[in-house]
Design a protein that fits this description.
Keywords: Membrane, Transmembrane, Transmembrane helix
Oligomer: single chain
Helix content: over 70%
Distance between the termini: 20 Å
Order of helices and strands: HHHHHHHH
């Protein structure tokens, strides 16, 4: 285990965690399973539905703009996670790898990625409004707040850029 942590990049491991979250929980199959088996009236059902926030799909009865916006949101969550993991300086300033600052930097990167992905893709939907964009950013930030701890855990112990 010590050998793998020595070569693990915080940005790379956090991005892979985000990619897995988006691929698995944003899939149409997962979202169909949740809508068939769980309700929003329980905390567990609400959380399971929230996991499907970065939804992606290939076909739908919705407009092409809305399908494109959903797919773009899923892609942006992963790309923006990588960008924010690279830009957030918390772990770079920490003296030791694996500290809480590294955990919170990973978690915060996912909150920002979800919020900005929602905000940006709301502009590509059919009939976009500023109020809808703010609501989408809020939903993305909520998703990042409740799911981002997974990305935070994935970044623990990784090096940032150049190792010393």
């Amino acid at each position: 285990m010590a050998l793998t942590n020595r070569y693990k990049s915080a940005v790379g491991s956090g991005t892979i965690a985000a990619l897995i979250l988006v691929l698995v929980f944003g899939s149409p199959w997962y979202r169909d399973w949740v809508s068939d088996n769980h309700t929003d009236q329980t905390a567990g059902g609400w959380f399971l539905r929230l996991l499907g926030y970065p939804a992606w799909r290939f076909d739908s009865s919705d407009s092409l703009q809305d399908v494109f916006a959903d797919d773009l949101r899923a892609i942006l969550v992963v790309v923006l996670t990588a960008l924010f993991l690279y830009l957030l300086p918390g772990s770079q300033l920490a003296r030791a790898r694996g500290t809480l600052s590294q955990f919170f930097a990973g978690w915060g990167a996912y909150v920002f990625a979800g919020a900005f992905a929602g905000l940006i893709t709301a502009l590509f939907r059919s009939n976009p409004t500023l109020l809808a964009a703010f609501g989408a950013a809020g939903l993305g930030a909520t998703y990042g707040l409740f799911v981002g701890w997974i990305v935070g855990l994935a970044t623990l112990g990784g090096y940032r850029g150049t190792r010393s």
